Amino acid sequence: MRFGLDVATDGPWADPRLLVELAREAESAGWDGFFVWDIFFPEEATDPVADPWIALAAVGAATSRIRIGAMVTPFPRRQPWDVARSLVTLDHLTDGRALLGAGLGWRAEELDRLGLAADMRSRVERLEEGLLIVDRLWSGEPFSHVGRQHRLADVQVLPRPIQRPRIPIWLAAGWPRTAPLRRAMQWDGVCLMAEHQFTGERISPDDVRAVAALVGLERQDAFDIAANVATLEEADGGRSVAQAMADAGATWIVELTPETVDEHLALIRRGPPQVASRNSAHGS
């Protein structure tokens, strides 16, 4: 079991120096992952927003152990060749600590406002084609592609990533919808959305257990299941919640961003809860 932090990039978290400070604190306190938001428009219209890749470069240069990435990058808004090169650069900067989180985009409104196709079919195509392009460009070999959403002619990205066979790719998925999960199972992991898609309630250990069972039917190799939790107010420091998620099959626990920076610092300095390891064929 590994423990990560979901980190906002808007409002007070838009200060890249604060993000570096939080990441240093997190590494010192024993956290395993530091995952920032990739958003363009903030929740509050007048709030500032930090660029995730510039912030992650600063975080990567200021840390030495913790895994970092954006959670998640909306492929309908990003060009895959830019994502490929940014991640390779981040991977080399951090000696192989980069992770790519990818998704369809949280809000269709964001795509509409930027003049991008917001219908679900186009978003799915851009994600699936984009991931294929990123993976092939990471091979370091010239690559051409003609698809419904992207066209490339003899494009090469060098250097190759440090990590093999590639930088890990996690896809966002809302449970109990199975299509996003099956899409994620073509790659290296799934980042479960914090809320159940039908009930709106927080994802439970039973939900994670159902996800792990479905994954187990199709994947016998390593595959990460990341579950979002919010345990700042838990009297036991989140141990019971984390243990239940671990027992259900989660390989990562990712703590959601609290309401304030002070609360975030308190959560980080508390450190990740200690749980008993669970033997599993999935995850790292």
* Oligomeric composition of the shown chains: single chain
Q: What is the spatial order of strands in the main beta sheet?
A: 1-2-3-4-7-8-9-10
Q: Give me the CATH superfamily of one domain.
A: Luciferase-like domain
Q: What gap, in angstroms, lies between the N and C termini? A: 8 Å
- Total helices: the number is 9
Task: Quickly give the CATH architecture of one domain.
Answer: Alpha-Beta Barrel
Main sheet makeup: 8 strands, parallel, barrel
* Rounded mean pLDDT score: 95
CATH topology of one domain: TIM Barrel
Rg: 18 Å
Beta percentage is 15-25%
Explain what the structure shows.
This protein has 284 residues and is an alpha/beta fold. The chain contains nine helices and ten strands. It has a domain at 2-171 and 254-270: Luciferase-like domain (TIM Barrel, Alpha-Beta Barrel). The protein has helices at 16-29, 52-62, 80-93, 108-113, 120-137, 178-184, 205-218, 239-248, 261-270, and strands at residues 2-7, 33-36, 67-74, 98-103, 143-146, 151-155, 169-173, 189-192, 224-229, 252-255. β7 (169-173), α6 and β8 form a beta-alpha-beta unit. The model has no long low-confidence stretch (mean pLDDT 95).
